[in-house]
Amino acid sequence: MPRKRALTLRCPICKKPVKSADPDSPFCSDRCRLLDLGKWASGEYVVPSPLTDADEAIQRDRLDDADGDGKP
Ligand SMILES: [Zn+2]
C-alpha cells in the first residue's frame, strides 16, 4: 500500500488532471475556477429565474378577474 494517496482529480472545466494538493483544486487553475463561476452566473446551471413578462401577464389576468363576475 502506498503511504501517500496519489489522488488525482480532473478539472470539471477542461478535464485536465489536477493534483488534490493544488490550491486551485478541483480546478486546474484560477481561470477554470472563474469559468465555473461564470457558468453559474450565466444560468447554464439551473437557478431560480426572476419574474418574466409572461408571468407578469398571467398575474394581471388574474387580477382583472378578481371580482369574479367574468366581465372585464
Ligand atoms: Zn481546467
Topology:
Elements: E1 8-10, E2 17-19, H1 30-41, H2 53-64
Antiparallel strand pairs: 1-2
Bound molecules: zinc ion.
Zinc ion binds next to loops.
Structure description:
Strands 1-2 form a two-stranded antiparallel ribbon. It is rod-shaped and about 80 Å long. Helix content is 33%, strand content 8%. The mean pLDDT is 77. With 72 residues, it is α+β, with helices and mostly antiparallel strands. The structure holds zinc ion.
Q: Tell me the structural class.
A: alpha+beta
User: Approximately how much beta-strand content do the residues carry?
Assistant: 5-15%
Q: Unreliable stretches, pLDDT < 50, 5 or more residues?
A: none
The biggest beta sheet reads: 2 strands, antiparallel
Query: What ligand molecules are bound, each kind once?
Result: zinc ion
If you compute it from the alpha carbons, what radius of gyration comes out, rounded to the nearest whole angstrom? 25 Å
Number of helical elements: 2
Helix content class: 25-40%
Distance from N terminus to C terminus (CA atoms, Å) equals: 79 Å
Strand order of the largest sheet: 1-2
